[in-house]
Write a sequence for this structure.
């Protein structure tokens, strides 16, 4: 259910009081007290709305210039609980406290309200005192809880990132937006004889690579595990069995070290790679992610909460097409670099292979979607036809023409997305970015259209843990609460789900 | 002496097995302090974090006081099995604990002999290996708390096992694996001359299911 959090007004008083009386039957605040809270200059009250109805509220109190703030109250209607509204309200209040210069936030909570206590603990609150029989007439004790906002540390968190969504075991460490270590252990060689990634082979390799990669990353970053502020892990999209290795390991590491854990989206991680290269992400931007598993066009307005999927492949990923065509041409795996090599000296215009989903009727319905399965078949037909006629085939022409068809569609649609949305920025990511011709065409097309092109270094374009750490770091810096320990590995996680 | 205060780790052990469901336990010197068992076979990666957190809370032991992690090496369905192995590796790393590995079937045999103390008889342990096969191992009694494995672990069709064991007196157990038994086997192993095994590699027993592919013809 979509919700909206906004600042509360006196006109919300009736709606707030209805919830106050529903949630705190025996010790509700009076209408007068609530109104003075809403109108006081040193308070900050928010309401949460679902379908234009107020279903929750929360308030903060902080005197001007004070470094201590108090959470005054928080309430969500019983039938709306469990959907993250309390968490969202708390998040906004702590962000406001940070903006107002608070270093510590205090609150009181009923000793018998374990659900609220659990929420507060997620935000780092710890019990520091007890007020006996504070809640009357029930005679229930209050726990006094406190959290530190520690602005300096929060602004430059040291984050460990774990990535196991495909065939690369990646462990990275970043401080704030700065890359400290990026260790990648690939099982690519083990997949070569199968002509593609075998999920079971990849998962087995992850399990073996994890500990050595973590040790190496800590060494390279010159930090100890104790110093890490948070752990980020890819929980999707990707190969389920591979994702679960990283998820299981990350959760156990979080429990054994007491560090908060952030479950993050692999695709959004690819966007975060640019932060490590540039120190920040220029937004809004269009992002084209091309790898063996994905071909996606995204519109990014804010990496922590506003990433929109414009289109994606409806069949094979671009990298997969390279692998399959390499096999047709008798080349080895991975296909991308092999086809690049074979295309040397070839004529990219020799054979006019089809450009998937670019006809007028397709552009109406699939403007930003891709299809490479027909292209692969066309190449195979071309090769088979030549063989049956006994003609000699110029592999370099076939490779160059095939590659041109892929690159043409990718860049044409990415440029269209920039122009249509009036966003003069394009960010590339994913392993296929290693393809020299793709980069060449992207540079030319962006120059022609006055679009700023961003291509992170290749070690940050292929799957890696540093980009996952970078995304985790953005979430920590924004004051987002950690993920609950119960998140799952989701092989089809939507790109809009930035944190699970 | 006060300036040489050394913090001595308590002898607490965390045991983890995901060869079937998700089972975790905390032990101290072979005594079980707490255990949690989730039988569902598909929720390992969701459960594992909270399960460890909860079993430690139940045992009132902090993660930093765990000095050994014992993990079930399988055999078992691979995807789930790996979740426990990955968790054990990183928990041990994070807590600076020693990592020990035990064949999961040994823990089931241990449970059997515990529940049937007067039957030091051969027992066949089998678990589902899918594809109409079973993972199995044969034990011939228990010695100072350590089940004596005489055959296996292996993976075969039930018919093969039946033929193999024809004429051999034995009993069969289908007890579930528990992390408490796993931890106890490790405890008793550590008291033997050989000590407990530091091999925490997975027992897969099958090669990955994949064949090198060739390009298929697309035109008739």
């Amino acid at each position: 259910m979509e919700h909206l959090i906004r600042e509360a007004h006196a006109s919300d008083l009736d709606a707030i009081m209805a919830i106050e009386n529903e949630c705190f039957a025996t010790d509700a605040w009076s209408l007068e007290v609530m109104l003075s809270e809403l109108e006081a200059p040193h308070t900050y009250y928010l309401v949460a709305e679902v379908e234009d109805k107020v279903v929750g509220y929360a308030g903060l109190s902080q005197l001007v210039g004070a470094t201590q703030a108090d959470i005054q109250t928080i309430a969500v209607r019983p039938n709306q609980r469990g959907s993250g509204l309390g968490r969202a309200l708390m998040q906004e209040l702590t962000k406001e406290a940070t903006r107002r210069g608070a270093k510590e936030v205090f609150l009181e909570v009923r000793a018998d309200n374990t659900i609220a206590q659990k929420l507060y603990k997620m935000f780092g609150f710890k019990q520091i005192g007890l007020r006996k029989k504070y809640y009357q007439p029930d005679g229930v004790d209050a726990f006094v809880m406190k959290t530190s906002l520690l602005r300096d540390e929060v602004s430059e968190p040291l984050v460990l990132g774990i990535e196991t969504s495909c065939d690369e075991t990646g462990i990275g460490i970043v401080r704030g937006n700065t890359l400290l270590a990026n260790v990648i252990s690939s099982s690519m060689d083990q997949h070569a004889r199968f002509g593609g990634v075998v999920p079971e082979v990849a998962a087995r390799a992850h399990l073996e690579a994890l500990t050595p990669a973590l040790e190496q990353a800590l060494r390279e970053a010159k930090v100890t595990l104790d110093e890490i502020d948070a752990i980020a892990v890819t929980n999707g999209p990707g190969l389920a069995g591979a994702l679960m290795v990283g998820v299981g390991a990350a959760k156990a590491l979080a429990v054994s070290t007491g560090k908060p854990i952030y479950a993050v989206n692999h695709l959004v991680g690819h966007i975060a790679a640019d932060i490590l290269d540039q120190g920040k992400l220029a937004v809004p931007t269009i992002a084209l992610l091309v790898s063996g598993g994905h071909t996606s066009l995204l519109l990014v307005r804010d990496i922590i909460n506003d990433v929109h999927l414009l289109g994606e492949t409806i069949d094979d990923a671009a990298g997969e097409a390279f692998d399959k065509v390499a096999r047709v041409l008798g080349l080895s795996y991975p296909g991308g670099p092999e086809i690049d090599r074979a295309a040397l000296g070839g004529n990219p215009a020799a054979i006019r292979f089809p450009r998937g989903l670019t006809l007028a009727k397709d552009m109406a319905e699939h403007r930003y979607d891709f299809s490479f399965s027909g292209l692969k078949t066309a190449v195979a037909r071309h090769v088979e036809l030549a063989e049956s006629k006994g003609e000699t085939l110029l592999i370099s022409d076939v490779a160059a023409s095939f590659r041109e068809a892929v690159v043409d569609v990718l860049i044409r649609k990415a440029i269209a997305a920039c122009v249509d949305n009036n966003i003069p920025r394009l960010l590339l990511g994913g392993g296929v970015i290693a393809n020299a011709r793709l980069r060449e065409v992207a540079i030319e097309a962006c120059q022609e259209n006055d679009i700023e092109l961003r291509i992170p270094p290749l070690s940050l374009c292929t799957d890696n843990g540093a980009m996952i750490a970078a995304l985790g770091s953005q979430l920590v810096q924004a004051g987002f609460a950690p993920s609950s320990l119960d998140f799952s590995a989701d092989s089809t996680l939507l790109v809009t789900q930035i944190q699970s | 002496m006060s300036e040489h205060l050394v913090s001595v780790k308590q002898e607490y052990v965390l045991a983890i097995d995901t060869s079937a469901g998700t089972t975790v336990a905390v032990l101290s010197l072979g005594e079980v302090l707490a255990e949690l068992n989730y039988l569902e076979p598909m929720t390992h990666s969701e459960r594992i974090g909270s399960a460890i957190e909860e079993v430690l809370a139940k045992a009132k032991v902090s993660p930093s006081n765990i000095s050994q992690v014992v993990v079930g090496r399988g055999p078992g369905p691979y995807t789930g099995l790996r979740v426990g192995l990955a968790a054990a590796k990183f928990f041990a790393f994070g807590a600076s604990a020693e990592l020990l590995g035990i064949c999961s079937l040994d823990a089931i045999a241990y449970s059997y002999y515990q529940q049937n103390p007067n039957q030091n008889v051969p027992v066949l342990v089998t678990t589902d290996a899918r594809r109409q096969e079973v993972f199995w191992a044969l034990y011939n009694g228990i010695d100072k708390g350590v089940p004596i494995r005489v055959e296996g672990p292996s993976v075969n069709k039930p018919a093969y096992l039946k033929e193999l064991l024809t004429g051999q007196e034995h009993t069969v157990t289908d007890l579930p694996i528990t992390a408490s038994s796993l931890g106890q086997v490790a405890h008793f192993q550590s008291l033997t001359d050989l000590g407990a095994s530091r091999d925490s590699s997975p027992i897969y027993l099958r090669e990955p299911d994949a064949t090198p592919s060739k390009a298929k013809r697309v035109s008739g």
Remarks:
- Chain B touches chain A at residues 44-50, 52-53, 56, 63-64, 66, 78-79, 82-95, 97, 202, 204, 208-215, 217-219 (CB under 8 Å).
- Chain B has five helices and nine strands.
- Helices of chain B lie at 44-59, 78-95, 104-115, 158-164, 179-190.
